[in-house]
Design a protein that fits this description.
This is HAT C-terminal dimerisation domain-containing protein. InterPro entries: RNaseH-like_sf (IPR012337). The chain is an alpha/beta fold. It folds into four domains: 9-70, no CATH class; 122-266 and 555-592, Nucleotidyltransferase, domain 5 (2-Layer Sandwich); 268-439, no CATH class; 459-479 and 508-552, no CATH class. It is built from 26 helices and seven strands. It has a five-stranded mixed sheet, with helices on both faces. The chain has a two-stranded antiparallel sheet with strand order 5-6. The protein is globular. The N and C termini lie far apart (91 Å).
Length: 599
């Protein structure tokens, strides 16, 4: 048998056919040798590559462990866990959950989660450090305002208090929480007055508080009526605070002189009283009573179906691309927004939604009633949003807002088809409920020293008297507390055409030093700037602004202290004592004005 060994092109042709042209079986030397060697070569290469990948993987894993060990120390992990518990108000028992411990161990390459004892110690240390830093900040503040409110949930009542001031350099509002204490037993005006007084004294701000803003509830009204700081006519008018805790513990009974600052009624709560009490009374006595009740009954049926049935919520999201929820009774602006959502639906969408939820459909007249409701009371909802702001809301905002609200309502009175009489009743209610505010000298000065309003809101015949009052108040200010005019502003910055055109330096600082108090007030009143930055050129007016506009118009900040996060006052806090629960809330709220929670 002949064995032919072919090379070159013939080898390639023969390898493709597999047989020789003469019926012989050919074996190709190079092909034969290659077939014998390649499998081992491939297996060797794969093995080497696999070993190389494992080696690189091990090196990367070691490098990752080294980086984590350098960056994530046990102290750093404890700090992050502490911030997680405080900022999100988590239960302390999270630390003992096996899943949480495995999560921390897996993410940190073997580091452990701290136990509850360590967490309690860190809470104590963080609270002491936060309190010291906050007291140091408040020590350098001249004017502060506090807000107080009581929140009841899950058969527990809590007393909250926040503190607010304006930075004298940047004119930015700063806020801090002072108290989140549990109230036990009967809540009386003595209890409330004692809490307010104790917190003011504990932070050494009792002489700095301009006003305390509260709602219009009877306990707060009685407390400030009884223990107001007004100068008494006789000794019988002085309020005394009885230390109930000392009496219960058997200590000798001692009466303490108790003084509270002046009280400022919550403007947003006053507006809500107008739309929840005066509005309902006007509607029930007017010709639109039946239409109003039939319309709102159908609206509440929609809300109820969407709230209690998942199919209702799914239908609302599918048809109207929105969530319809039952609004809170005490928050009228939430109810207004809910009505606004229903009005925004088209006729087809509303018909389909009512059919899917098996609710009686709103008639054409009822829809027209709701649309006018949304249009007429939009200014009132806008005013509520202004009052519930915090950073850019001052006492000087209240009078112009209320005056503008009355004008907006009166403008719609003649064109209203359903709410003409109701608008008149609401305007009268505004005059009655804000009568004390319009008569307040402090509120007038606060408004006049706000550059956005100055004296434009006043009648021309009253402006001269107001200028004289401002001059008198400015002349009585302590000269040591009056800041100098700001000379560090960059006047060469060009951001608009108004910044480009220049007609020579006005030298405001020199002029202010030369002119007297009356001339400074005149120059300020004649100005047109609406930014707070223009107060830097009028140091006496700026000082008046700091004194009278430190007061907030509403208790919205202390309400946020209770309602922020979904698990504040819930059954989850049952694992904590009242003292530690308060410390957690204050640490969370004050993290923006004090040092980081854990260091």
């Amino acid at each position: 048998m002949l064995v032919h060994t072919l090379t070159g092109p013939a080898c390639a042709r023969r390898s493709a056919s597999g047989r020789g042209g003469f019926g012989h079986t050919f074996r190709f030397g190079r092909t034969h040798l290659g077939c014998e060697a390649r499998p081992d070569v491939k297996r060797g290469r794969k093995k080497e590559e696999h070993n190389g990948e494992e080696s690189r993987h091990c090196q990367l894993k070691k490098l990752k462990a080294e980086i984590i060990s350098k960056c994530m120390t046990q102290a750093k992990i404890d700090e992050l866990i502490f911030n997680f518990i405080v900022e999100d108000c988590q239960s302390f028992y999270v630390l003992e959950q096996p899943g949480f411990r495995k999560l921390i161990s897996g993410l940190t390459e073997g580091l452990k989660s701290m136990d509850r004892v360590t967490l309690f110690t860190k809470v104590d240390q963080g609270f002491s450090r936060m309190r010291e830093e906050l007291m140091a900040k408040l020590g350098g503040i001249q004017y502060v305002c506090t807000t107080a409110d009581i929140w009841t949930a899950n058969n527990r009542s809590f007393f909250g208090m926040t503190c607010h001031w304006i930075d004298r350099h940047s004119l930015e509002r700063k806020s801090a929480a002072l108290g989140f204490a549990r109230l036990q037993g009967r809540i009386t005006h003595d209890t409330i007055a004692g809490r307010i007084h104790d917190i003011h004294v504990a932070y050494n701000i009792d002489s700095k508080v301009q006003t305390t803003v509260t709602d219009n509830g009877s306990p707060f009204v009685s407390a400030f009526k009884e223990f107001a700081v007004d100068v008494p006519e006789s000794d019988d008018d002085i309020g005394f605070y009885e230390n109930v805790g000392a009496v219960l513990e058997g200590e000798p009974e001692q009466d303490m002189l108790l003084f509270l600052p002046t009280v400022q009624r919550c403007a947003s709560h006053t507006l809500e009283q107008i739309v929840t009490e005066d509005f309902w009374q006007a509607v029930s006595q007017g010709p639109m009573c039946q239409l109003h009740y039939s319309t709102m009954a159908k609206v509440y049926s929609l809300w109820s179906k969407c709230h209690h049935l998942q199919v209702g919520m799914d239908a609302a999201e599918e048809i109207g691309k929105m969530a319809l929820v039952v609004p809170a009774v005490i928050r009228w602006n939430v109810e207004y927004c809910a009505v606004q959502k229903i009005v925004s639906l088209s006729e087809r969408e509303l018909t389909e939604l009512c059919a899917r939820l098996e609710v009686v459909r709103l008639q054409a007249e009822e829809m027209a009633f709701l649309k006018e409701y949304v249009t007429v009371f939009h200014p009132l909802a806008f005013a509520l949003e202004l009052f519930q702001a915090e950073q850019k809301c001052y006492l000087g905002l209240v009078i112009p807002t209320v005056l503008s609200l009355k004008n907006k309502l009166n403008e719609q009175k003649d064109s209203a088809n359903y709410f003409g009489d109701v608008i008149g009743a609401i305007v009268v209610a505004i005059d009655v409920r804000f009568q004390e505010l319009f008569a307040s000298t402090e509120a007038k000065i606060a408004t006049a020293t706000t550059p956005q309003f100055r004296l434009w809101w006043m009648a021309a015949s009253d402006r001269e008297e107001m200028c004289a009052l401002l001059a008198t108040e400015a002349s009585q200010m302590d000269p040591g507390n009056i800041p100098e005019a700001n000379t560090s502003r960059n006047v060469s910055t060009i951001e608009s055409e108004d910044d480009f055109f220049s007609y020579g330096s006005a030298k405001p600082t020199v002029q202010i030093q030369q002119r007297g108090v009356t001339e400074e007030i005149r120059k300020y009143i004649e100005g047109t700037g609406k930014s707070l930055e223009c107060l830097q050129d009028f140091p006496r007016v700026k000082q008046l602004f700091l004194k009278y506009n430190t007061t907030l118009p509403s208790t919205a900040p202390v309400q946020r202290l209770f309602s922020q996060k979904g698990n504040l006052v819930t059954s989850q806090r049952n694992f904590l004592t009242d003292d530690y629960f308060e410390r957690i809330q204050l640490l969370r709220y004050n993290s923006l004005v004090c040092a980081p929670l854990a260091e």
